[in-house]
Amino acid sequence: MNIVLLSGSTVGSKTSTAMKYLQSEINQLESEHQVQFFDLKELDLSFSDGRNYLDYSGDTLTLTTALMQADIIFIGFPVFQASIPGTLKNVFDLLPVNAFRDKVVGIIATAGSAKHYLIPETQLKPILGYMKAHIMQTYVFIEERDFSQGTIVNDDILFRLNALTTSTLRVAKVYAQVLEEENAQYDF
Amino acid sequence: MAILKMNENTPLEFGLYSLGDHLLNPENGQKVSYEQRIQELIEASQLAEQAGIDVFGVGESHQEHFTTQAHTVVLGAIAQATKTIKVSSSSSIISAADPVRVFEDFATLDLISHGRAEIVAGRASRTGIFDLFGLDLNHYDELYEEKLNLLMELNQTDKITWSGQFRPDLKNMKIFPRPIDNTLPIWRAVGGQPASAIKAGRQGIPMMITTLGGPAMTFKDAVDAYRETAEEHGFNTSPESLPVSTASLFYTANTTQDALREFYPHLNVGMSFIRGAGYPKQQFAHAPDHRDALMVGSPQQIIEKILYQHELYQHQRFMAQIDFGGVPFDKIMKNIELIGNEIIPGVKKHLKN
Questions:
Q1: Closest approach of chain B CAs to the CA of A115, in angstroms?
Q2: CATH superfamily of the domain spanning B13-352
Q3: pTM (predicted TM-score)
C-alpha cells in the first residue's frame, strides 16, 4: 500500500517528532508498503488558487500527487488558535473535492494544553469527512509534557501510536479487500 | 442578438464535440501522432454530416494531452471538408483571447462555411492557458466577463467604442470581415452550476451547459434559473431566441455491457490524466440508469436518457463529447454510425409524438 505521512506544521518540533516515530513503527512492519514522509517545514508550497492540483509545480505538485495516490494517510498537526494550522488547511485546499475517497486517514494531534483534546474531532474530522476519507475514529492526542529532548517520553503515547498504526493498516486492508471484491463483480 | 438558426426539422439538435484529446489508448498503450489525431477529427466531422448530425464542435485546452489548441484552424479545415453541418467551438476560451481576434476568426469561418459558424465562449476548466499567455488566474472571473461582453458587443455593433481593463481601448473601430448575417450565434459555456447559468440569463445569451455526470436532475436547477433570470431581465426566453444546449461525455455500443466495458478504461485513464483522480467503478456502475447524466449505454439506453433529460430541461440541442480519454477512431466511427442510424431517429420519433 502507498502510505503518506504528513507532518502538518511549519512551526515547532512536536508534530515532526511524533510523525517520525510513527514512520519508524510502520517501517518495522511488513515491507510491501511504500512509505513517503512529508514535513511542511521542509516544503515550499503554493497557496491554493483554485486550479487543479496537476497544474501546480515543484513541492506543491509532489505533495498533492503523493496524497492523491496514497491508500493510507497519517496526518499530524499541532493545535493553533484552537484549530488546525493554516498551512495544513492550505494542503486540503490544494486538493480536489473527494480527494480522500477510498483512503483511510489516521490522525495525530499535538498541543500545549489538554483543553485542546477535542480539536481534531471538531476541526479536522469534518474536513476529512467532506473530502470522503475513511477516518480512523480514535486519534492520538499528545501534550507538551509527553515530549523531552526531541523524543516521546510517555509510554502510553507510544502504545497509542502503535495501536493507531496497526488499526489503520488493518482497516485499510479490509477496505481494499471489500473494494476489490466489489470491483470484481463489474464487467468493465 | 445573433441570428441562431436551429434546425426546424428536429425538436432536438444533435451535435458532436471534441477537445482534441491526445492520450494513450489504454487498450493498447499506443498514442497516435498529432497529425493523425487532427486528420481523424476532420474525417469524423464528414462522417457526422453524413449521419445527419447537426453540429460539430472543436475546443481548445492549451496543455499536454490535447491537440486542437488552434481550434479555429481545425474548424476551418472542417468547414472546407463539409457542406451542411454547423461548425462550432466547444469552447473558445475567450478569457485568454482577444475578442476582436476571435470575432475575426469566426466571421472568417462563417464565410468559409457559408454561414455555419458558431462560437461557444468558455472560461477554461484547466489553467494551462493562463500560464501560457501570461494571464493572472486571480482575474479568472473578471477576464471572462469583460471579454465575453466585448465579444457580444462586437457582434451587435458595426462600429465599436469600448474601454475595459484587459484590452486596449477601441475608438470608433470597425471589425472586418463581418459574418454572412452580420452577426454570429454566440453561446455562453456553463459548467453546470446555477451561478454561471444565472449570469448567462442576465446577459440574454444562449447557454451550453455541461452535464458531465451524477443525477441529471441536479442540472435542472441551473436550466430553470437561466430561463427565470433571462425572463426577469426582459429577454425573450422562447426556444428560438434563447436555446439551451447540454454537453455530455458520450459513448455508445451495440449493447450497454459493451459500452460500459469499452468506455471505462478511457474514462478512468482520461480522468486520471486530466483531473488527477480516476473514475470510481461504483459510480460508473450507475451510468446505465436513465436518470444518470453520464451518456453511456446502448443506443436504446441513450435514447431513454436523452428523452428523460429533455423532459427535465426542455433543451434544444444535445452535444456529445465523442473521444474523451483517447477513444480510438474505429470506435468513434462506430459511435457516429449508431447515433445516425438509431439514436437520432429514435429521439426524433419519440419527441415528435
A1: 38
A2: Luciferase-like domain (3.20.20.30)
A3: 0.90
